[in-house]
UniProtKB/TrEMBL annotation, chain A:
Lineage, top ranks: Bacteria, Pseudomonadati, Pseudomonadota, Gammaproteobacteria, Lysobacterales
Subcellular location: Cell membrane
Coiled coil ranges: none
TM segment ranges: 21-44, 311-330, 351-377, 397-420
Species name: Rhodanobacter geophilus
Identification of the protein by name: ABC transporter permease
Protein keywords: Cell membrane, Membrane, Transmembrane, Transmembrane helix
Entries under InterPro entries matching the protein: ABC3_permease_C (IPR003838), MacB_PCD (IPR025857), Macrolide_Exporter_MacB (IPR050250)
Residues in MacB-like periplasmic core domain copies: 20-264
Domain ABC3 transporter permease C-terminal: 312-423
Length: 434, 400
């Protein structure tokens, strides 16, 4: 039966090429705009670590006395290292980054400026970071303030032609570091772990070194990008005892019970710090423990313009749809005679309805095709735009399927009212006038 | 003037189709008004006056010099850059307006720090930087040579500062700012001059010009960003030669970025420009789709009413009457859409105001939007209406 409806629909659409073309164009334009903006939104609001993000949390405490309603987003050195030492989560890591001057092994070569992350040993297993050669450093390396480094695959390709460079050395500013690991290509989007450093859509990091080592070599200047101080600084290079928040801190908590326990721990820790005279609060300390996706939302990682664009696109689709409803109505009612004859010959209302919806769906499929082409053109334009996520804007299989699902759904929706209206055509009246 | 009553009673027989058209025009009108408003907002923001004499300015962002070598090496580099033909003046600064990178503080208005001022950007530069940037002093004086003193990492040792007129007005409204002081931590600074305009690294609405300028000799924190003033025609050459010279003098220096000030400004507004283009594209597409919708439905109605048109022509209506009928019908429908659309536009604007910090839609948008949609409607209906007018009276006598 469906095949017969398709055949009828095809014949009917062929009979009015201009009207059909208008409808296909309208749906195509609307779908193209929506898919372009949805792809960008999907990219920017995606889960950077699917399967793992549910166990990753960003704890927050309130170390300073500035009256606020929200705990600090970053940590002082004292609090971050306290939490790290007390080791109450399944895994935990301090994260801070900066752009450093990196020298390769070739003598006389010009240095490069690379994003460098100072962190602690758990970073690699906690974030499921894949290694091509070697592995991350150990807790012993952290304690010993070892001059070891993990480098990215891109940097390894550039400096060592992609061969195993474990054991070789690179220079960061004035200091040599021994390479212990080389990453397999790793670029989570958004770059969730360092929102307060290089940001959510910065280029991927080139080098990773132990946090303790970066403090040992304070002149490297790894202080993140949003140093926030609330008192007079005695020393602006050695921030260990200064009233400043500048570090990020991540924990992995594998069960809901551990999550609840960690919440209590943050309150308990704050109370303990108050007893030591460091924190000040009245009844309850300001603390928070946000999951990874919640943390991204809280920090508004998706630019507001991208959301606005998506709204505009859907508004446009709405106009295109109303337009299509009008045109379909005109098209179906013009065929009142034909519908009357079919009804008189025994076709049920349902059959006529199904046939007309098939016709609307066929318009949707064609509109989806046009929309897909327009979305590809739209994404090409996005890639040429000067935004920092531009290069990542590609249509994946999911969005490809979404295009057609959305187009067919939209056209069926647009077809409902006209098809229903056309079903109401009384058979006898139509026959009489002919 | 045309009689509207018969048109209205005819439309009543096409409630559904006419209603859809009204709805489409209403939604289109609401989106158009808000989109055009947002485009104009973005364009207005892009016109911001930075306070700099922008046309002859070029800049080079290096990785800076650390340690004790910072002062001598940077001063040597500045001297070398000054020697390039066509360079009028050179300085190092900590940041530039619209560079998306700034250092901020909250001044204390009294010695014990109980009364805090608003968030202010800390601007700092090496000797002569006000002139290099082209900032205009309106009160007081520029820094003296001896006020360009040393630095304690980020803080200048000299206690003299120059503030923008906007900051002066905020801190000491309707008073003379010269000679007034505030504290940063336990350091006290005194206003010696006021500049007309200067915006921050990042625009922040009414606080965009809250900037305090300080003076220092080049030091580690003041060794990365070089600005050069030249005449606009030789910007490209000066930029190339400056980069070559810095690289030759400092084999290990990194030049992370460089360009004219116009490049930097373009970069800052790139997102706004892209958004404005996108909105403009949507507006055009909306108008086209709406016009096609109006035209398509009008064509259908003309085809459907051929017989009635023939009857009207046969009993004496002129071609002009028929043409006018369809034009008037379209005018009525568009008017309905515009009225509904204005209400919708206002509602959307209210939503945007709460979520995107957009100001209220000015009332002038309503008549302009109505005029635009009437024009589009008339244009779209003209073809079908002419076709209707061409229907010969003889159609009335034929049976289908």
């Amino acid at each position: 039966m469906f095949g017969y409806y398709l055949d009828l629909a095809w014949r009917s659409l062929k009979r009015t090429p201009i009207l059909t073309g208008l409808m296909v164009l309208a749906i195509g334009l609307g779908i193209g705009a929506c898919i372009t903006t949805l792809t960008v939104l999907h990219l920017l609001s995606g889960d950077p670590l699917p399967g793992k993000s549910g166990q990753l949390f960003y704890p927050q405490i309130m170390p300073d006395t500035r009256s606020k309603t929200e705990p600090e987003a970053e940590y002082t050195y004292i609090d971050a290292t306290n939490l790290l030492r007390e080791h109450r989560a399944d895994r935990q890591a301090i994260v801070v980054s900066a752009k450093l001057k990196v020298f390769g092994p070739q003598p006389g070569a010009r240095p490069m400026s690379l994003s460098t992350v100072a962190t602690t040993t758990d970073f690699f297993p906690m974030f499921d970071v894949p290694f091509r050669y070697g592995a991350g450093w150990t807790a012993a390396d952290d304690d010993a303030r070892a001059r070891v480094a993990v480098i990215s695959q891109a940097l390894n390709d550039k400096l060592f032609d992609g061969v195993d460079s474990v054991g070789k050395s690179i220079r960061l500013d004035k200091w040599d570091f021994r390479i212990v690991g080389v990453l397999q290509h790793w670029r989570p989007v958004p770059r969730f772990y360092d929102l307060y450093g290089q940001g959510g859509f910065a280029e991927s990091d080139g080098v990773f070194i132990p946090f303790a080592t970066s403090r040992d070599l304070a002149e490297l200047g790894i202080q993140g990008n949003s140093l926030d101080c609330w008192g007079q600084l005695a020393d602006q290079v050695h921030l260990e005892n200064q009233p400043c928040v500048w570090l990020q801190y991540w924990v992995e908590l594998d069960t809901p019970a551990r999550v609840a326990a960690y919440r209590d721990y943050l309150v308990h820790y704050s109370a303990q710090q108050r007893a030591l005279g460091r924190f000040q609060f009245k009844d309850k300390p300001l603390t928070a423990l946000r999951g990874l996706m919640d943390w991204l939302g809280h920090n508004e990682v998706v630019p507001s313009d991208v959301r606005l664009q998506t709204w505009v696109a859907f508004g446009f689709l709405l106009v295109c749809l109303i337009n299509t409803v009008g045109l379909l109505l005109a098209k179906f009612l013009r065929r009142s005679g034909e519908i009357g004859v079919r009804r008189a010959l025994g076709a049920s209302r349902g059959a006529v309805f199904a046939q007309l919806l098939t016709e609307a769906g066929l318009v949707g499929v064609a509109g989806g095709g046009v929309g897909l082409l327009l979305a590809l053109a739209g994404l090409w334009a996005v890639r040429r735009s000067p935004t920092n996520y531009a290069a990542l804007a590609h249509l994946d299989l999911g969005m490809f399927l979404t295009t057609f699902v959305l187009a067919i759904l939209a056209s069926l929706l647009a077809g409902l009212l006209p098809a229903w209206r056309a079903c109401l055509v009384p058979p006898a009246l139509q026959l009489k006038s002919h | 003037m045309m009689e509207f009553r018969p048109i209205l009673s005819a439309l009543r027989r096409h409630k559904l189709a006419a209603g859809l058209l009204v709805l489409e025009i209403a939604v289109a009108c609401a989106i158009l008004c808000n989109a055009v408003f947002m485009i104009r907002q973005r364009l207005a923001q892009m016109q911001v006056h930075t306070g700099l004499a922008e046309s002859g300015l070029v800049w080079l962002m290096t990785d800076g010099v650390s340690g004790d070598a910072a002062t001598p090496v940077t001063e040597r580099n500045l001297a070398a850059l000054r020697g390039i033909a066509g360079v009028q003046s050179v300085a190092t600064v900590v940041s530039l307006p619209l560079a998306n990178n700034d250092m901020n503080f909250n001044p204390s208005m009294d010695a014990d720090g109980t009364r805090r001022g608003p968030n202010v950007q800390l601007m700092l530069g090496s000797p002569g930087y006000l002139q290099t940037l082209g900032l205009k002093l309106v009160e007081g004086r520029d820094f003296d040579a001896d006020e360009y003193a040393g630095m304690d990492v980020w803080m200048p040792q000299s206690s003299s500062m120059i503030i923008t007129r906007a900051l002066a007005g905020r801190l000491w409204p309707e008073q003379d700012a010269l000679g007034r002081t505030f504290w940063i931590g336990n350091r006290r600074f005194r206003v010696i001059g006021v500049v007309d305009h200067m915006v921050r690294g990042e625009l922040r609405g009414t606080a965009s010009e809250y900037v305090a300028l300080f003076a220092a000799r080049p030091a580690s924190a003041l060794s990365a960003l070089y600005v050069l003033r030249t005449d606009p025609a030789s910007r490209g050459r000066v930029l190339r030669e400056a980069a070559d010279k810095l690289m030759a003098l400092n084999p290990q220096m990194l030049i992370n970025d460089k360009g004219t000030y116009a490049d930097l400004r373009d970069g800052y507004f790139a997102g706004d420009r892209a958004m404005a283009w996108l909105l403009a594209t949507v507006c055009v597409a909306l108008l086209v789709v709406t016009a096609l919708g109006i035209g398509g439905l009008a064509s259908f109605w003309v085809a459907q009413r051929r017989k009635q048109i023939g009857v009207r022509r046969a009993i004496g209506a002129t071609r002009r009457d028929i043409l006018r009928y369809f034009q008037a019908e379209n005018f009525l429908i568009v008017t309905g859409g515009v009225v509904l659309g204005m209400a919708l536009a206002y509602a959307i604007n209210l939503l945007l105001m709460t979520h995107y910090e957009l100001p209220r839609l000015p009332a002038s948008y309503f008549p302009t939007g109505a005029l635009a949609l009437w024009a589009i409607g008339q244009l779209a209906v003209l073809g079908p209406a002419l076709r209707a007018a061409a229907v010969p009276p003889v159609v009335a006598t034929r049976s289908v």
